[in-house]
Automatic annotation (TrEMBL), chain A:
PROSITE patterns: CARRIER. Coiled coil: none annotated. Residues 1-74 form the Carrier domain. This is Phosphopantetheine-binding protein. It comes from the Bacteria. It comes from Belliella alkalica.
Automatic annotation (TrEMBL), chain B:
Residues 253-340 form the Beta-ketoacyl-[acyl-carrier-protein] synthase III C-terminal domain. Pfam families: ACP_syn_III, ACP_syn_III_C. This is Ketoacyl-ACP synthase III. Residues 114-189 form the Beta-ketoacyl-[acyl-carrier-protein] synthase III N-terminal domain. It comes from Belliella alkalica. Keywords: Acyltransferase, Transferase.
Length: 74, 352
């Protein structure tokens, strides 16, 4: 599932030609902005059936935290 | 979720009026750098909006649209028995704007007139109310007016909302006639999400005061607004759309025993290009069946569905056409309809 999660992140944020790590702070990615957030919300809903509220999004920093949150609420 | 159904009631014709005053998104750089603004235009798909000049109200835009429609269809005003005005930007807190419009349009004193206060869902909601009254058989002609001056409801220094909203007004003439087919409505509300889109002050819970008009920093990004202006939590609005709208559309299709393939046009509330793209993709709709006017007019709240019909579907509504309408937003409130249009007349767009 972690592999699929990473694929979803790469797809949603249109990350090209680089690896991402679960310890990455994704909001610091150059691809990150409000629209990227919406795209990610839509993809996570599609792929994992999880919607993430903005209050939760504010607290989440790393991809690992996002992944853990998805598993918790799934 | 009441599922309503009507028969032999339909829209005879529609007209829309927008302010002449055009605001180009990429030139709207008073408070934010040009590069940021261009980026916002790219992402929202909103290139132009119409801003009503000071002194012009939503009702003025509706009045212009109504006069055009009455003239084009050669309507006998004495036959208009019902006038409903839909807006969240009325002329006054009282009296109701619909009553003022009865007089300004020169309609008879026997006209039944009232306002409906809802946002992006309002056109579909109002259609269901008007259809219900018209189906009773005692109303010869009904005029549904729906107008907004949303450009004024949001602060220009709050980048989350400053580049989205525009103004417009529409008129729709509705009648009972055996030529019209069936229509189906799904109407919903969720007040637990009241904070997602809100203007806090100006009502009686938080009356306007010296404090409510003060500019203040409202978030960690340094956006500035006042309690008299609208705020929006965009990502949670999107969550709401994801959770509620595709399923509501599936429900209304099923209630109407209609397949997606039977629908000629899917007209969604025009929030931004991203939202429309999401819904089209999620519901697997061909893009040529999903008309949009977001590029030219931005988000005009309840006006956006009828404004899309008038500005994009003129010449495409001859004969019998099946449309699916879905409006969703402030409240939160949402409504979807499957309806048959029969030779619906569309006036040329009016500029005021």
């Amino acid at each position: 599932m972690e592999l699929k999660f990473k694929e979803v992140i790469i797809e949603a944020l249109e990350i090209e030609d680089r690896e991402i790590l679960m310890s990455d702070k994704f909001k610091e990615f150059e691809e990150w902005d409000s629209l990227a957030q919406l795209t990610l919300i839509a993809e996570l809903d599609d792929q994992f059936g999880v919607t993430i509220q903005s209050e939760d999004f504010k607290k989440i920093q790393t991809l690992q935290e996002l992944f853990d949150h998805i598993q918790k609420v799934q | 979720m009441p599922l309503l159904q009507f028969d032999q009631v339909g829209i005879v014709g529609m007209a829309a009026a927008v302010p002449e005053n055009k605001v180009l998104t990429r030139n709207y750089t008073h408070y934010f750098p040009e590069a940021d603004v261009a980026d916002i235009a790219d992402k929202t798909g909103i290139e132009e909006r119409r801003f009503a000049l000071e002194g012009t109200c939503a009702s003025d835009l509706c009045q212009a649209a109504a006069e055009k429609l009455i003239q084009d269809l050669d309507v006998d005003k004495a036959e208009i028995d019902l006038l409903v005005f839909v807006s969240q930007t009325p002329d006054y807190r009282m009296p109701a704007t619909s009553v003022l419009l009865q007089n300004r349009l020169g309609l008879s004193k026997q006209t039944m007139a009232f306002d409906l206060n809802l946002g992006c869902s309002a056109f579909v909601y109002a259609l269901s109310v008007v259809y219900s009254l018209v189906q009773s058989g005692h109303i010869r002609k009904a005029l549904l007016l729906d107008g907004e001056t949303r450009s004024r409801a949001y602060h220009p220094k709050d980048r989350r909302v400053a580049f989205l909203f525009g103004d417009g007004g529409i008129a729709a003439l509705i009648e009972k006639n055996s030529k019209f087919g069936k229509s189906f409505f799904s109407l919903n509300s969720d007040g637990s999400r009241e904070d997602l889109i809100k203007i806090k002050s100006g009502g009686y819970r938080f009356p306007s005061s010296a404090d409510s008009v003060k500019e203040k920093v409202i978030d960690e990004h340094g956006n500035i607004s006042t309690d008299e202006h609208g705020t929006m939590i965009g990502s949670d609005v999107f969550n709401f759309v994801i959770q509620e709208i595709p399923s509501d559309i599936k429900n209304i299709l099923s209630h109407a025993s209609t397949e997606k393939g039977d629908i000629d046009f899917f007209v969604f509330h025009q929030a931004n290009a991203f939202m429309n793209g999401y819904l089209a993709k999620k519901l697997k709709l061909p893009l040529d069946k999903v008309p949009s006017c977001i590029r030219d007019f931005g988000n005009t709240s309840s006006v956006s569905i009828p404004l899309t019909i008038v500005s994009q579907l003129q010449g495409n509504l001859e004969g019998r056409k099946k449309l699916l309408l879905s409006g969703f937003g402030v409240g939160m409130s949402w409504a979807s309809a499957v309806m048959e249009f029969q030779d619906c007349f569309i006036s040329d767009l009016v500029e005021v």
